[in-house]
Amino acid sequence: MIKIRIDIVSDVVCPWCIIGVKRLEKALLELKQEAIEAELYWHPFELNPAMKPEGQNLREHIAEKYGSSPEASQSARETLTQLGHEVGFTFQFSDNMRIYNTRKAHQLLMWAQQEQRQYQLEMVLFEAYFTQGQDVSDPQVLLNAAQTAGIDRDTAQRVLDDDSWANAVASTEQQWLEAGINAVPAFIINKKHLISGAQQPDSLVAALKEVANQQG
Hints:
alpha+beta, Glutaredoxin, two-stranded antiparallel ribbon, 9 helices, 14% strand
């Protein structure tokens, strides 16, 4: 069995991140048949680190940030919903959907790696935000997500209250920015090969096979 390392830089309010991860899962399932498997490590990237506590209407935010018209925004939502359906993920966009700051979510996610619960927590948070429309900056939402992911609630509360984890998130994000990562999702294979964006599974299979063959 050839093992490769994949570092995933993402944000839980990024729709292309969950699509990219689901496509990666499909690729890895195919590669298992060829004795190639991956260890995944997740890293923080805040799309909106300066977002105010109450968040902002998502459609207004997209219009301000990218200059998108209401028609373009609606078209993008329809496209994402269809792509989500193709990979087995449900997007439930609504007119009152809001975008939130994700610093606290990333604190929990960074800590969860040492508990080997990072993947579970990522999936719960993606679903909480995109499928259930929850506020992923709300500590109670985060504690519920942690509990669903198999993490002790009291321990999760301590992580959320610990400024050192907030500082660790900020420091890690800065390192990725300095490394040239300014958009997500970003997949770094064996710490040296970058795959940007939500690539199709067949493209991922080809790229990962090439890396594995070089390694093997």
